[in-house]
């Protein structure tokens, strides 16, 4: 069934119950009020720090937008882009677009003006719905977006080149527009994260979105009493598709605007959250804050928190060991997916398999997996190959890019992920690295994730990225960009001594102490690192050869 049917059911059966809560701790910081002090003054629902929406209000807002779009002749086959920070309006806007029959096109809030222009043009978007954080970027390019028929602004003080969202939709009917939708109808275009190049436009059908709802609930057992804490950006499949399990259950979700460790812990406590999905850096920051005494867990009632799951990148086993020491009652799961497979769930560990931490797990509900060689033949257990997945959540195609689609999607539905993995004798899959991140040094294949997992064991290391840098003799060498914990000291000779436990060919030949950049979904931005450090090294090598 189309995913919009789930919202219709929730509004009908749970209309007066809270669907979404938005918490914005930055509002308090600007007013110089602590969260603790704020909680004592019993704020109203309409306060800018905390606001909420019932399922009935959610559905009516979505219907109003859908009916407005239909008055502007936007419907099936048309694309409406969303450029908003996480907020209460985000999901009703997303579902309003779907209810009109059009395709939603969520946009990365970190895009530059030129990246916004590129993606809008690539997706053939006709409407852009954007928020106050993006006025400057949109204004810079608005006269170079000939396909955009209308810029719609969500917020106060609408800029002159846009139309005000609230005024446009307020007069429209809140009744369901009753547009006939099917599983095969195209629903959304998501952009790849760009960690291996410029974003591609990924087309998903309604079938993919609904499948994601079912998979998430099957994996984590969301029920009506659960409360999901959503922190990652909603434009990405990772955050929204984890929320989809709660959506299917008709249970409440909390949108937290900010990632400070205290905010996460306090939101989980005060909103009685039972499920929290984290990225690796946030989990590390929480544990470090506890170790430094900045967070005292005894001050918080976290008794409802039952599940911490994590994904979007390889998860260091040492991190989960530390987490279980601090939160022994938590169930734990890790989730693997990619935007082409409608986000997380194609592979997952499973809460019952905590003894296999380090693996990304087994095929998810309704999914199949293979590990193949370059000719797409299955490799034997223990050998490294490319992970392929198949299921109802696989994308339809890359929009207007038949060549790129054919490179990753087979005629019989297998999606070749570009991730290198191996399968153990007992059937668990271990992620080795991105195919494009493999370093070939002197004829040997190095998998950076394996080296990164080892380096993270050092107590002074907060984060690390291993990349290949050009070398005139070996082709490439492994370089470690190491981000240290606050106030930590790690001399280079001590680092090299620590790495001596690695096989000689795996030891980094160069170490750079610097910040490790990650995108909003927690993935290391290795192309950026290669550009930052690879170019300088290559110039130096060329000068040496002169």
Descriptive notes:
The structure is a single chain. By secondary structure, the chain is α/β, with parallel strands linked by helices. It has three domains: 4-356, Rossmann fold; 364-434, Roll (Luciferase, domain 3), CATH 2.30.38.10; 438-545, GMP Synthetase, Chain A, domain 3, CATH 3.30.300.30. The protein is 32% helix and 25% strand. The strands form six sheets. Strands 2-1-11-10-12-13-14-15-16 form a nine-stranded mixed beta sheet, with helices on both faces. The protein has a five-stranded parallel beta sheet with strand order 4-3-5-6-7. Helix 1 crosses helix 4 (55-71). The radius of gyration is 24 Å and the shape is globular.
Features:
GMP Synthetase, Chain A, domain 3, Rossmann fold, nine-stranded mixed beta sheet, five-stranded parallel beta sheet, disordered C terminus, alpha/beta, about 550 residues, 17 helices, Luciferase, domain 3, 3 domains, globular
Radius of gyration: 24 Å
Calculate the mean pLDDT score and round it.
Answer: 89
> Which class best fits the helix and strand makeup?
alpha/beta
Give the second-level CATH assignment, the architecture of the largest domain. Answer: 3-Layer(aba) Sandwich
CATH-wise, what's the superfamily of the largest domain? ANL, N-terminal domain
As for the CATH topology of the largest domain, it is Rossmann fold
- Report the span from N to C terminus: 66 Å
What are the SSEs and their pairings?
Layout: H1 4-14, E1 18-23, H2 25-31, H3 35-38, E2 50-54, H4 55-71, E3 79-83, H5 90-99, E4 103-106, H6 113-123, E5 127-130, H7 135-141, E6 150-153, E7 163-164, H8 165-169, E8 186-191, E9 201-205, H9 206-220, E10 227-230, H10 237-249, E11 252-256, H11 261-270, E12 275-278, H12 280-291, E13 307-311, H13 317-326, E14 331-338, E15 343-348, E16 362-363, E17 367-372, E18 385-391, E19 397-398, H14 402-408, E20 415-423, E21 429-434, E22 439-441, E23 444-446, H15 448-455, E24 461-471, E25 475-484, H16 492-499, E26 510-513, H17 526-545
Parallel strand pairs: 1-11, 3-4, 3-5, 5-6, 6-7, 10-11, 10-12, 12-13, 13-14, 25-26
Antiparallel strand pairs: 1-2, 8-9, 9-19, 14-15, 15-16, 17-18, 18-20, 20-21, 22-23, 24-25
Helix pairs in contact: 1-4, 4-5, 6-7, 9-10, 11-12, 12-13
């Amino acid at each position: 069934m189309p995913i919009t049917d789930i919202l219709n059911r929730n509004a009908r059966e749970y209309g007066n119950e809270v669907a979404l809560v938005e918490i914005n701790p930055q509002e308090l910081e600007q007013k110089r009020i602590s969260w603790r002090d704020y909680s004592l003054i019993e704020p109203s629902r309409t306060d800018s720090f905390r606001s909420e929406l019932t399922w009935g209000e959610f559905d009516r807002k979505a219907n109003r937008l859908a009916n407005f779009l239909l008055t502007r002749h936007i419907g099936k086959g048309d694309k409406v882009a969303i450029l908003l920070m996480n907020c209460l309006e985000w999901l009703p806007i997303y579902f309003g677009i779907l209810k009109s029959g059009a395709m939603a096109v969520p946009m990365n809030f970190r895009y530059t003006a030129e990246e916004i222009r590129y993606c809008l043009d690539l997706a053939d978007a006709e409407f852009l719905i954007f928020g106050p954080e993006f006025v400057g970027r949109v204004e810079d390019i608005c006269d170079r977006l000939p396909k955009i028929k209308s810029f719609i602004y969500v917020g106060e003080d609408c800029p002159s080149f846009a139309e005000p969202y609230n005024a446009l939709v307020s007069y429209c009917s809140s009744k369901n527009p009753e547009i006939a939708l099917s599983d095969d109808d195209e629903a959304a275009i998501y952009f790849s994260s760009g960690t291996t190049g410029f974003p591609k436009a990924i087309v998903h059908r309604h079938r993919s979105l609904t499948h994601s709802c079912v998979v998430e609930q099957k994996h984590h057992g969301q029920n009506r009493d659960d409360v999901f804490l959503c922190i990652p950006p909603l434009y990405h499949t990772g955050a929204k598709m984890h929320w989809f399990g709660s959506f299917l259950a008709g249970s409440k979700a909390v949108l937290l605007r900010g990632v400070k460790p205290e905010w996460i812990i306090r939101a989980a406590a005060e909103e009685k959250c039972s499920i929290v999905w984290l990225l690796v850096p946030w989990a590390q920051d929480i544990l470090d804050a506890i170790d430094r005494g900045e967070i005292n867990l005894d001050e918080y009632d976290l008794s409802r928190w039952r599940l911490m799951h994590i994904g979007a990148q390889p998860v260091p086993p040492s991190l989960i060991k530390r987490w279980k020491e601090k939160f022994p009652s938590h169930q734990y799961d890790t989730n693997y997916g990619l935007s082409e497979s409608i986000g997380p769930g194609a592979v997952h560990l499973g809460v019952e398999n905590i003894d296999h931490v380090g693996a990304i797990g087994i095929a998810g509900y309704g999914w199949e997996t293979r590990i193949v060689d370059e000719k797409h033949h299955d490799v034997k257990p223990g050998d490294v190959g490319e992970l392929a997945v198949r299921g109802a959540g696989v994308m339809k195609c890359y929009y207007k890019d038949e060549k790129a689609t054919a490179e990753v999607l087979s005629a019989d539905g297998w999606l070749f992920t570009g991730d290198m993995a191996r399968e153990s004798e007992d059937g668990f899959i271990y992620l080795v690295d991105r195919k494009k991140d493999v370093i070939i040094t002197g004829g040997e294949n190095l998998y950076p994730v394996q080296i990164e997992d080892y380096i993270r064991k050092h107590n002074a290391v907060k984060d690390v990225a291993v990349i290949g840098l050009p070398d005139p003799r070996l082709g490439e060498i492994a370089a470690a960009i190491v981000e240290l914990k606050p106030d930590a000291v790690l001399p280079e000779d001590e680092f090299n001594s620590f790495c001596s436990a690695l096989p000689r060919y795996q030891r980094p030949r160069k170490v750079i102490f610097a910040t490790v950049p990650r995108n909003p979904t927690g993935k290391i931005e290795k192309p950026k690192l290669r550009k930052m450090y690879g170019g300088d090294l290559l110039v130096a090598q060329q000068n040496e050869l002169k």
